[in-house]
Amino acid sequence: MIRNPKERDDIEVGLKVNIVLKKDQRTNKLTQGIVKKLLTNSSYHPHGIKVQLEDGQVGRVKEIL
After folding, report:
1. Cα–Cα–Cα angle for 14, 43, 33, nearest 5°?
2. What mean pLDDT is predicted for residues 25-35?
3. InterPro entries, alphabetically (predicted)?
């Protein structure tokens, strides 16, 4: 199954993902981590679902690894 980083149902706690932090949105620099918490409540977001990683960083999911 292919997971879509823009669909909330495809992202779950414990997944390894690449996110874009707010400060990196212009450069699209990716940060890798494990999802601790989903922060977007809607089922879909065009820029990616916002999550908090286990290390506390917050950003939008760009890739699910």
Report:
1. 25
2. 96
3. DUF2196
